[in-house]
Amino acid sequence: MKSLATYAAALITGIILIIPAFISCDKGNLPPVAKLVAFPAAGDTTVLFDFTAEGSTDDRNYPIGLVFRWDFDGDGVWDTEYSKTNAIAHKYRVSGKYEVKVDVKDIDGLTSIASDSIEVYAYNQDIDTLTDPRDGNRYRIVKIKDRWWMAENLRYGTEIPTDREQTDNDTVEFYRKHTSKLYDTVGGVYQWYESMNYNRTNPKGICPDGWHLPTQTEWESLFNLELQAIGGFYHDLYSVQYYRKNGPSNLNLDLNNEASTDEEGTFFWNWLFWGGFWSSDSRWITDPPYFVYYPYECFFNSTHLELNVCCWVNGLSSKVTPLMGYLSVRCIKDN
């Protein structure tokens, strides 16, 4: 029994000695890890920006133990007191670039700060008109990010029936939907080669002198707000609000005007869905049996899918090439 008692005493002594060792390895409480996400990344003075710090964490406490305060313009003055509100919305009255900050504090008083940046545009009032000297057509134009864009679809050329193909001749040809009452703004649709005036190296295409079809870079610069590559497409959710018909930009991109032909060569209008626009850029695809140019194009829809998409044309069938789609043309002024 004495031997057993000796062993028990030694075990207790060992445990007592080990416990302080574990305690001495404790590094103490760490400050929380703050995370902030702003959406959208850019907008105008009519947009309610959403800021969330829901991804913030702490090493010892559940997120419910964290409190947050917000600085909406990054001036070092906190615009709110600490609260458990980890997501908040704010509208800006003045255009400019802002650094938004959130200060996250745990129950021990330790803090961490995260920031994100946004850009706020004023309601666009740079509006003018362009008269095409070739036919006298007048277009509304708007200035966005120091560049002038047509706020209407091009309607230059001669209308032809849909059972006739647009061909490389001395006449620019287009199709239009006869039932539309928006002809003056919706304009016509063109195959890509027709829109480029059958010269893929000259971005002027069929635009008036001093103007050209937007390049891929110029389209993406226009939509640099929330561009994210997803499955080979570029998506921009904010443009739905900013560039829609009668939106703050006054660019009016959802003057829907898109058409195509099916595998049997039947012409049809995708009138209620996508409005599509050509760029002047293309890339050469040589995968047999196809040897064609894939143009870069942008689509806009603020009615159904609420999404803007820019991409390279893809998806060939045995009878249809991507050049048998018909899209609108929006010209941008040369620098």
Amino- and carboxy-terminal Cα gap: 99 Å
What is the count of β-strands? 22
What radius of gyration results from the CA coordinates?
30 Å
Report the uncertain regions.
Answer: 15-25, 225-232, 315-322
How large is the count of helical segments?
A: 5
Count up the domains. Answer: 2
Structural class assignment? alpha+beta
What does the average pLDDT come to? Answer: 80
What is the subunit arrangement here?
A: single chain
What's the SSE pattern? HEEEEEEEEEEEEHHEHEEHEEEEEEE
Order of strands across the main sheet: 14-15-20-19-18
Helicity, in percent? Answer: 10-25%
Written account of the structure:
The chain has 335 residues and is α+β, with helices and mostly antiparallel strands. The protein has 2 domains: 37-121, Sandwich (Immunoglobulin-like); 127-333, no CATH class. The protein is built from 5 helices and 22 strands. The protein has helices at residues 2-24, 183-186, 192-195, 216-222, 238-242, and strands at 37-39, 42-44, 48-52, 67-71, 87-91, 96-105, 111-121, 127-131, 138-144, 147-150, 158-159, 173-174, 211-212, 228-230, 233-235, 259-261, 267-269, 275-285, 292-301, 307-312, 325-326, 332-333. The chain has a 5-stranded antiparallel β-sheet with strand order 14-15-20-19-18. A hairpin with a 2-residue loop joins β14 (228-230) and β15 (233-235). The longest helix has 23 residues, at 2-24. It is elongated, with a radius of gyration of 30 Å.
